[in-house]
Write a structure and sequence with these properties.
The complex is a heterodimer of chains A (about 230) and B (about 290).
Chain A (H helix, E strand, L loop, with lengths): L1 H15 L3 H34 L5 H11 L4 H12 L14 H25 L3 H9 L4 H11 L1 H17 L2 H7 L9 H11 L2 H27 L5
Helix pairs in contact in A: 1-11, 2-5, 2-8, 3-5, 4-5, 4-9, 5-8, 5-9, 8-11, 10-11
Chain B lengths: L1 H34 L7 E7 L1 H5 L2 H13 L1 E7 L2 H10 L4 E4 L2 H9 L3 E17 L11 H11 L3 E3 L5 H12 L9 E3 L4 H11 L2 E5 H7 L6 E5 L6 E9 L9 H12 L1 H9 L2 H4 L5 E2 L3
Chain lengths: ~230, ~290
């Protein structure tokens, strides 16, 4: 247990002394994770709403694939993206392997199904009677959508939080497609793996405290937004 | 309208994040441009290497030196030697720094790697529990392996096709022993984790000396039991991936890197590395 206290001390020390490398790594982690979850939300939210509210041919099959994606292991996502980005692969000319962009791609792949599926299930639960009532009041399609989104605020934010949790916790894919390159693709989770393999448990623990703090702050902000009461 | 405002706030927050990310990117880019104004943008080179060079901290010293001299951005991918060589044969890396001479020879013979140069060496050691249940000692690794197999004392293997793993498998072959059974544990992980497993399970494990010295402080149930034999030499080679056989290879910088590694100045840096922290060199110069 001494190690735990040492790790906490080390974390505070790293932050206070302004360890440049820690800042670079933490900032990159934040940037990569937020961009990934933002893109996942921008795609997943409309897609989830569409799947939840409408019925079309192939909808169930699409939903099935998205739900399978909920359990997509990050290393599998990483492996596929690696193969695509290899110099000998179809996207090899872009030279994107071992770049932060590659990490963002992998994180989108693992978080998009979560955001989409959870959004879809919340919109599918919308009460038919309410829909009828909204229509009866003469709302246009756009107005109906706005009302429904407001109604589902809690579920939508829960979907985004679940997606964010997946993204910030992810390590297998980031290691594979990012390569844990110093000053370039080294994020908090991959650094923790590396420090453990170096035997620097105190540093690894310190980093884990920093990672938890970052996750806590962002999740707290989202929870606050989610739980805020309407002031009407 | 109040509800609307909430959604707007949410949306604005997202835009802000996006804008913030975008902004810093350009700022970074501007800063970088300013710094390197007189020079051209650095070229990128992928170095595939073994975990021991990274985990020991050697690359943290060497790579910045090379980058500064040559205006190159080195992307270091530290994996097991087996995977590093595979990256070479696939043309996914530009230059390789590895330590499994027998497997390297196959890659060079196949024409996937050229400009093959010896760089440095250290040695493998056998570490084991302080109780030493198999009673092994001295410098003969073959005798030690035989004793462990006969006593069925726990032996922890990397099992990940790394340079160390290849070495260990090679020693079993010399003894014509097929290691199998409850006592032979294969972790499939890096050297650091494998040493941890050995410490917990009180087993024997073959390791490179550099990783052992770096991790010794966490491994108080283990000690060195066999060291110094000729069979235990651990030789590192550097080589560039053949640009005529693969596309998109940065052979210009790869060639520079090979020359950098065998340069006498770099060789001195290699041999000095670790003397301050461990009182001995972790790697010794060994060019041809």
């Amino acid at each position: 247990m001494d190690l735990l206290i040492d790790g906490l001390k080390k974390a505070i020390e790293m932050i206070l002394t302004g360890d440049q490398e820690i800042y670079t790594i933490t900032w990159l982690t934040l940037k990569v994770c937020l961009i990934a979850i933002l893109i996942s939300t921008l795609i997943g939210l409309p897609l989830g709403i569409l799947l939840g509210l409408t019925r079309f041919r192939g909808r169930k099959v699409l939903l099935l694939f998205i739900n399978i994606g909920l359990g997509l292991p990050p290393v599998v996502a990483g492996l596929w993206i690696t193969m695509f980005l290899w110099r000998s692969g179809p996207l090899g000319d872009l030279a994107m392997l071992y770049s932060p962009t590659a990490i963002v791609m992998a994180q989108i792949l693992v978080s998009l199904p979560i955001v989409t599926s959870l959004t879809c299930s919340s919109f599918q639960q919308v009460n038919d009677k309410m829909l009828l009532q909204i229509k009866a009041l003469g709302a246009t399609k756009l107005q109906t959508l706005v009302i429904l989104i407001k109604q589902s605020k809690i579920a939508i934010l829960a979907a985004i939080m679940a997606g964010f949790g997946r993204v910030i916790a992810e390590v297998g894919a980031a290691m594979m497609v990012g390569g844990n390159i110093q000053g370039d693709t080294r994020i908090l989770t991959t650094t923790i793996v590396m420090e453990v393999s170096k035997g620097n448990f105190d540093v690894a623990l310190a980093l884990s405290f920093i990672l938890l703090t970052v996750a806590l702050l962002i999740t707290a902000a989202l929870t606050f937004l989610q739980q805020r009461r309407r002031l009407s | 309208m109040k509800k609307n405002r909430l959604l707007m706030t949410l949306f604005a927050l997202m835009l802000l994040v996006l804008a913030a990310c975008g902004n810093t990117d350009t700022k970074d880019a501007v800063a970088k441009e300013k710094k390197t104004e007189p020079k051209a943008a650095p070229t990128e080179m992928i170095l595939a290497t073994t975990t021991s060079t990274q985990d020991s901290g050697l690359l943290d010293v060497l790579i910045p030196l090379f980058e500064k001299e040559n205006n190159v951005k080195v992307k270091t991918v530290a994996v097991g030697t087996g995977q590093a060589l595979e990256m070479g044969t696939k043309g996914e890396a530009d230059v390789l720094l590895v330590h499994a001479p027998a497997s390297e020879k196959a890659v060079v013979d196949a024409g996937d790697a050229i400009n093959y140069k010896r760089v440095m060496y250290n040695d493998f050691i056998l570490v084991g529990p302080k109780e030493n249940p198999a009673g092994v000692s001295g410098d003969d690794i073959k005798v030690a392996f035989k004793a462990i197999a006969e006593k069925k004392s726990p032996f922890i293997s990397r099992g990940d096709d790394s340079g160390t793993d290849k070495k260990e498998k090679g020693i079993w072959t010399l003894d014509s022993i097929q290691p199998a059974g409850d006592w032979y544990i294969s972790t499939g992980q890096g050297m650091g984790q494998t040493l941890q497993v050995a410490a917990e399970k009180k087993g024997y494990v073959l390791t490179d000396r550099a990783t052992w010295l770096a991790q010794e402080k966490n491994l108080d149930t283990l000690q060195i039991v066999v060291e110094g034999g000729n069979d235990l030499m651990n030789i590192y080679h550097v080589m560039q991936v053949n640009p005529e056989k693969h596309e998109n290879i940065n052979s210009k910088d790869a060639e520079k890197f090979v020359n950098f590694m065998i340069d006498s100045k770099t060789q001195d840096v290699i041999e000095d590395f670790g003397k301050k922290d461990y009182g001995q060199s972790l790697f010794y110069k060994y060019t041809e």
